[in-house]
Amino acid sequence: MKHAFSEPHSVRISGIGGQGNVLMGIILAEALLIQGSWVVQTQSFGAQVRGGLSYCDVLFNSEPIDYPKAHSFELIYSMHQTAVNAHVPLIHMNGVLIIDSTLVKSIPKEGIRMTRKIISKPVTELTENKFGSTLPANMVGLGLIARAGNFVTTQSLKEAMVKHIKAKYVEMNSRAIDFGYSLIEKSYNIRSEESILSAGDLNEEVCQKSRQRNKRNKVSLEGTELQNPARVRSSNSNSRRSARA
User: Fold this and answer.
1) For residues 32 and 58, what is the distance between their CA atoms, to the nearest angstrom?
2) pLDDT for 190-222, tens place per residue?
């Protein structure tokens, strides 16, 4: 019996160890849960506690997610040049790319070819000027994501943030989210969920798309995003697009 699936939305937040990008992903995932989405959140980081490449993936949908990986991302937020170089080739066609230009000085040509929706802000520098510290730069980034992606509210982000931040820092981080939201005026509506393909037809379609994407980007698509079925919280779990197995 065939069943139609919709492809979940995909977000990757990347940087280096110590920048708080994994915490950003956890808070974003929880905020989406609060809004009623099904969510899968996964993370990856190297052996280095600080300085090594790390990233956090968030997949979300209005219905259960059956496959915990994404091979391209509708929104990528990159906080460091190392992360941009590694992950920009995975941007979805016409996806939204947000970079912290304090630490990112160039964008790989693959990113420029794939999208013109590029938002560049010196987030770390602006955060230090505003708050006297770079610590809440990741929350400023969440505010930027909320405004640019138009799929999560600052209210939901703040509600989720309170569960993961020490009480004495909540007020500052709440202001940081609002500050990030105020930095840009442009919002992009990421694609509407497409009800696609029956389970019986999906494998061939996925293989075909993967071949086309590899040929177009000439890169090996690796380090993709994981998910956890909405009512399940972050872990390296299972659930996302239509039965890709």
Assistant:
1) 9
2) 764 443 333 333 344 433 544 454 444 433 333
Q: What is the DSSP letter of 193?
A: P
Contact yes or no for 12/206 (Cβ under 8 A): no
User: What's the rounded Cα separation, in Å, for the pair 55 and 72?
Assistant: 14
Q: Quickly list DSSP for 2-56.
A: --EEEPPEEEEEEEETTS-HHHHHHHHHHHHHHTT-EEEEEEEE-S-SSSSEEEE
Where does 150-198 have alpha helices with state H? Answer: 154-161, 167-182
Burial of 185 (0-12, 13-18, 19+ CB in 10 A): exposed
Answer CATH for 9-217 from 3.40.50.410, 3.40.920.10, 3.40.50.720, 3.40.50.300: 3.40.920.10
How far is it between the farthest Cα atoms of the chain? Answer: 59
Q: Is the pLDDT of residue 81 over 50?
A: yes
pLDDT tens across 150-180, in order?
A: 999 999 999 999 999 999 999 999 999 999 9
Q: Give 70 or 190, the one with higher predicted confidence.
A: 70
In our burial notation (b when 16+ CB lie closer than 10 A, e otherwise), range 13-49 reads bbbbbebbbbbbbbbbbbbbbbbebbbbbbbbbeeee
Q: Which of 173, 83, 128, 34 is nearest to 97 (CA)?
A: 83
